[in-house]
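Service request form, structural biology core

Requester: graduate student, group of Dr. S.
Request type: structure prediction, single chain
Budget code: on file
Notes: please return the result as structure tokens.

Sequence provided:
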Amino acid sequence: MDAYGTDSDARHGPDDPGTTPEPEGPPEAADRPDQPSDENDRPDHFSDREHRPDQSSDQDHRPEPVAHPEPAAHPEPIAHPESAARPEPDSHAGPDSHAGPDSHAGPDRHPELIVPPQPDAPYVETRTGVAALSPRYQIGAALALAVVAVAVCVHLGMVFLHVAPSNTLTKAHGKAIEEWVYPEFEQNWKLFAPNPLQQNIAVQVRAEVQAKDGEVRTTGWYDLSAEDGRAIDGNLVPSHTQQNELRRAWDFFVATHDSDNRPSGVRGALSESYLRRIVALRLDRDDAAGKGGVVERVQVRSSTTNVSPPRWSAERISDKPMYRVLPWWPVTAADTDGGAE
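Core staff response, request fulfilled:
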């Protein structure tokens, strides 16, 4: 019996006389997991410990080394000297008790999941549009764009000079400007010189009719502009014909004739035929010739009346209509059936 009151053959831990701890290997065994830790190979292991009381308590409570093929990722910390007297409940745990779920985690745990770095591929810019064409087609596209740009600039310049006030360019190149603009690009507005209408212009026509019995009579004046006005009033979607056909035809005639109603060129004859056809169709629609009658000739005039000034204005103008009467035009079957002569 020794100082603990037990047989000297029993093995005792440093603080628990009734506990028989597992034999521990030498301190350097934790660093060498590949060496055997069997206590039978070291018969003098425990006798040396019992006769060396000067060893620190932390060496006596060092956990049993775990025999793993790889070192643990999180080794157990060394117990503090003050807590050496406290027994460790897991002192007899097996080799697997010291290894957590991540104890073997590391860069070599799953080598098949590690993807080696790939070299960066060179960046190739994708070309689109004209840049994607070959140099030959790029030159062709550039020339086409240049031609289109020149044509657009010339067209805009011609239209600008056409609607601009009279200037040196329009006086020197007026004929070329008119040939470019008319008839496809005709403009009826003026730039920098707005001139709102201050007069009401009505186009009127009368006819010389031969009746069925051979009698010739002259009808009264038909106010064609008033007819268009009545068709537009209350109509949410008036037609282009009702709004502009007669008005534009009269403006076309005035612009191509002098004050004596003589045409000033080929366009003058065209405007006359156009206006004659319009009034002939309108008379036929109004049944001006009557049953069995025939329209032999027509005469057109314009009635211009000044717009009355507002009541607060001191301006005084005449409210009497002014007439511009055109000569009699013969009407043929082409004016009512096949077109103007």
